[in-house]
Amino acid sequence: MTCQAAKPKTKPYKIADGEGLYLEITPHGTKYWRLKYRLQGKEKRISIGAYPKVSIAEARKAKEDIKKDIRAGVDPILKRLQTAQEQALVQQLDFRSIALEWHSKQIQLWKSKHAEIIKHRFEKYVFPYLGGFPLSEITPMMMLNCLQKVEKTAPDLSRRIKGICSHVFKYAIATGRAERDPTYGLEAAMTKFKKGHYASISVDEFPEFLSRMNAIERNENRQIFLALKLMLFTFVRTSELLEARWGEIHFDREMWVIPGERMKMNMPHVVPLSRQALAIFRELQELNPKRDYIFPGIYFPRKHMNKNAMLSAIKRMGYHGKMTGHGFRSLALGILKEKLGYPHDIADRQLAHVPRSAVDRAYDRAQFLQQRIKMMQEYADYIIEIERG
Q1: pLDDT class for 361, splitting at 50, 70, 90?
Q2: CATH class for domain 13-87?
Q3: Residues annotated catalytic, as ranges
Q4: Which fold has domain 203-387?
Q5: Contact assessment for residue 284 and residue 223, using Cβ atoms and an 8 Å cutoff
Q6: Is the N end or the C end of the chain the one with fewer CB atoms within 10 Å?
Q7: From the CA atom positions of the chain, what is the Rg in Å?
Q8: Residue 355: pLDDT above 70?
Q9: Residue 304 forms beta bridges with which residues?
Q10: Rounded-to-integer distance, Cα 186 and Cα 340, Å
Q11: Count of CB atoms within 10 A of residue 319's CB?
C-alpha cells in the first residue's frame, strides 16, 4: 500500500517503511511520519512531519540525520527542543532588549548620572531606528545609517554611540546570542574630525577677564555671580560645584570634601577653602538657608542650578566661545605654575587628577594636603591682588 493510497480507518494504524520509520494514518485522514528509536535502553518516538508536505525521500533523509545523532548519544527530541528554544530566544531578543539588559549589568559600575546619559542616548538616537530589530538582522549599513544621523550635528557623540552599541553586540556574542559586531570598522566610513580642548583664556588674559566679571556683578543674579567666583577660587568641575550640598562643606576645618560618587574618578576629593571661598559659602548660606543644594535651581529650587546659567553669564561678559566652566581649571593650573611657581604634581592633584598608569596609582599615595592648603590661600590672594590692579 502506498502512502498516497492509504485510507483512514476507525482506529489509527501504521505503514512501516523500515529501520523504525513509519507513516501513521489517523481516523481523520491525516498522515504523520514518525521514527521509533531506542536510546539508553528506552524506546522513544519522534515526529518528522506530515505527509505529503514531507515526502518519502525527505522522511528517509531526516531518519538518517536523526540516527547520526542517536549514534553520537544525542537525544533527537532534546536537540529539537533546544533548537526551538534558541530560535524563540533569538526572535524575542531584539536590540532594545539586549541593550537594556547590558545596561542593567553596568549600573553597579557606573555613577547614576552616567547610567542615565547612556540610557538616554539609546532611547533618543538608536532605539527609534534599530531597537525593534533582532541582532542577527542588523547589518553594518543599518548601523552606519543610524550613526550618520547623529554625525551630521555631533561627530564626537556619534562615535560615543558607536562605542556603546559595540559593547551591546560584544555582550550578546559573549552570552551566545549574536555572532558578529556590525559596528566593527565603521569608523573608516565616518567623517574625520579633530577633537579640541575646552575653551579657556590664557594667564595673560586673566586681568581683563576678572575685570569684566566684576563689572557684571551689579546686574547679575547674585547666586550665579557667586557661582562664577567660587569656580574661580576652587576650580572644581562645573558639575561638582553645582551639585554640591551643604553637608560637604566643613567650615570648622576650612575644607570642602566632595564624595567619591560625585567625582569623575570615583575617589573623594578635598578642596582646601581660602578665606575668600569661605566668605562666599557663608553668603550663600544666607541666600539659601533652607535648601539642600548650595546652588538650588533658579526656577526649580528643589533641583540644583543648571550649568547653562553660568555659561550665559560668561557669554554676557563677552567670552562666548573663549571661556567655559572647565576653562577655569586650565586657567588656575597656568596661574599656579607660571605666576606662583608651584610644581605640576601639587597643582595637578588639586585638580583631582590621578597618575595615569595603574603602577603609578599604586605607588603614588601623596596627597600634598598641607602644601595644597597653603597653595589655595596664595592663589586666592593672587586673585585679590589682580582685582586691586
Answers
A1: very low
A2: alpha beta
A3: 237, 264, 326, 329, 353, 363
A4: hpI Integrase; Chain A (1.10.443)
A5: yes
A6: C
A7: 34
A8: no
A9: 296
A10: 48
A11: 21
Q: Give the up-direction half-sphere exposure of residue 246: CA atoms within 13 A in the CB hemisphere.
A: 15
Handedness of CA 212, 218, 219, 224 (dihedral sign): positive
C-alpha triplet 371, 372, 376: angle, nearest 5°: 125
Helices 95-106 & 112-121 angle (0-180, nearest 10): 170
Reported in sequence order, the residue ranges of the chain that DSSP labels E, i.e. its strands, are: 13-18, 21-25, 31-39, 42-51, 249-250, 255-258, 269-272
Pick the closest to residue 203 from 322, 330, 320, 321 (CA basis).
330
CATH fold of 95-189 reads DNA polymerase; domain 1 (1.10.150)
For 49, the grid coordinates are 512531519
Q: Compute how many other C-beta atoms are within 10 angstroms of the C-beta atom of residue 241.
A: 25
- Across 215-369, the runs of DSSP E, i.e. the strands, are 249-250, 255-258, 269-272
Q: Is the pLDDT of residue 13 over 70?
A: yes
148 pLDDT tier (thresholds 50, 70, 90): very high
Q: 50 - beta bridge partners?
A: 32
DSSP letters spanning 194-247 = ---PPP---GGGHHHHHHHHHHTTTTS-HHHHHHHHHHHHH---HHHHHT-BGG
Cα 362 to the chain's mean position, in Å? 27
Please state the domain extents for the chain. 13-87, 95-189, 203-387
Maximum CA pair distance of the chain?
114
Cell numbers standing for residue 174: 559573549
Peptide bond into 134 cis (omega under 30): no
The model's pTM:
0.58
Mean predicted lDDT score pLDDT of the chain: 86
